Amino acid sequence: QKEVEQNSGPLSVPEGAIASLNCTYSDRGSQSFFWYRQYSGKSPELIMFIYSNGDKEDGRFTAQLNKASQYVSLLIRDSQPSDSATYLCAGGNTGNQFYFGTGTSLTVIP
Amino acid sequence: EPEVTQTPSHQVTQMGQEVILRCVPISNHLYFYWYRQILGQKVEFLVSFYNNEISEKSEIFDDQFSVERPDGSNFTLKIRSTKLEDSAMYFCASTGWDHLNYGYTFGSGTRLTVV
User: Fold this and answer.
1) Does any CB of chain A come closer than 8 Å to the CB of residue B109?
2) CB-CB contact of A61 with B114 (8 Å)
């Protein structure tokens, strides 16, 4: 069974702080991992993907992957109220489908 | 920026009726998907479609579901006889040849309400 697990939260951080979102996965064959942001009632929007061990930075976002521990994280620096959303972690392998976690709800408090 | 377009945005149907959800994927994409999300739950895979045929499907995608790409641009999901538990947001997604490096682009979704 291929699973992606996320802490559902809610996670609250003050504006300007670092938000840390975590995800674990069960399928060692997973090759790439994706972070999507989903506002209430809207479709998921891709923020970042990562497939190599280590860190990948894009603006205020940093994705981290540790394949030995089967762990993926997303750091959001200088959090803004507009970052308040549900963040979905997804894993993909050579098959076609991605496996999504249940999402972590993030609230950034002004 | 290219978009995946879905219509209608909201569909209400009576239990037992057939519904067709429509999607126009990004034009140069090769892989097409349907996912659904029941309110408050995770995004669940239904089916993937490549080269004019289904490449993978989940347990959810039973005989009541079918997909078609009738004209080279539209990609449809048909539910033959809807049940109350089919009420969900249905997302179409598409991707190019290298989905592992670029992920999916999702459409804005169709909210299906079965009454």
Assistant:
1) yes
2) no
pLDDT tens across A10-28, in order? 999 999 999 999 999 988 8
**What digits encode the pLDDT tens for the residues A77-98?**
999 999 999 999 999 876 667 8
A3, A25, A40, A96: best mutation site toward chain B, by most B Cβ within 10 Å? A96
Rounded CA-CA distance B36/B47 in Å is 10
A63 CB neighbours in chain B (<8 A) are none
- Summarised one tens digit per residue, pLDDT across range B56-90 is 999 999 999 999 998 878 999 999 999 999 999 99
What's the N-to-C CA distance of chain B in angstroms? Answer: 36
CA A54 to CA B78: how far, in whole Å? Answer: 42
Q: Look at residues B16, B6, B115, B22 and name the one whose alpha carbon lies nearest to residue B64.
A: B16
Which has more pLDDT, B95 or A60?
A: A60
Q: Are B114 and B87 in contact (CB under 8 A)?
A: yes
- Total beta-carbon pairs less than 8 A apart between chain A and chain B: 60
